[in-house]
Design brief:
With 178 residues, this protein is α+β, with helices and mostly antiparallel strands. It contains 6 helices and 4 strands; from the N terminus they run αααβββαβαα. Strands 1, 2, 3 and 4 form a 4-stranded antiparallel beta sheet that branches. Strand 1 and strand 2 form a beta hairpin. The protein starts with 32 loop residues before the first helix and ends with a helix. The structure holds zinc ion. Zinc ion (ZN) binds next to loops.
């Protein structure tokens, strides 16, 4: 009997690492993917795009490819540990940020919202309609062009996900695997 696995149970989607990925050689030798999620997300995003552009369909993906795919996906679905500043009962989903790409943004955990329209509206009025709502996930680090804004947003992610300011390979891995 042949068993065919379809969808999320297919072997291609069941990659689940047991340890953080550390580069064993090359320019990034000794660097850990899980830590780079915080310190250099742009590089990981670039690297996955590069690997995917060179990947031939049907070939076995290497460990780096599989780990990167898994890790970037995990960065989009982490559970926020802080509550909405408006209703105070639902976990926050968005941060309301204020400023401009040119002069920088004011980013703080005092202005978080769940996805309820009333809560979003509250924060919008609070900011004189000059705010931007940004989802609390890692890919949005790239939404900011200024390095300082990216750093502020990473600090906000650490705070909302309740991650210590000083991360280690283990604490970073534990966060993404949970
Ligand atoms: Zn709310």
């Amino acid at each position: 009997m042949v068993i065919i696995l379809i969808g999320t149970n297919s072997p291609n989607n069941t990659y689940w690492p047991t340890r953080p990925y550390v580069f064993q050689g090359g320019k990034h030798q000794g660097e850990c993917l899980e830590i780079l999620m915080f310190n250099n997300y742009a590089f990981l995003n670039w690297l996955l795009n590069k690997i995917e552009s060179e990947y031939r369909f049907g070939r076995e993906k290497n460990e780096l490819h599989k780990h990167l795919e898994w890790l970037l996906k995990q960065g989009e679905n982490r559970c926020v540990q802080l509550f909405c500043s408006s209703c105070n009962s639902q976990p926050a989903v968005f941060a309301s940020i204020y400023g401009s790409g040119r002069y920088g943004y004011s980013i703080s955990s005092n202005y978080l919202s769940c996805s309820d329209q009333n809560c979003l509206e509250d924060l919008r009025i609070n900011a004189d309609n000059c705010n931007v709502f940004i989802k609390l996930c890692f890919s949005n680090i790239l939404w900011f062009s200024r390095k300082n804004d990216q750093k502020q947003f990473v600090d906000l992610l650490k705070e909302t996900f309740n991650i210590p300011k000083r991360i280690t390979r283990k604490s970073a891995f534990d966060f993404f695997i949970s």
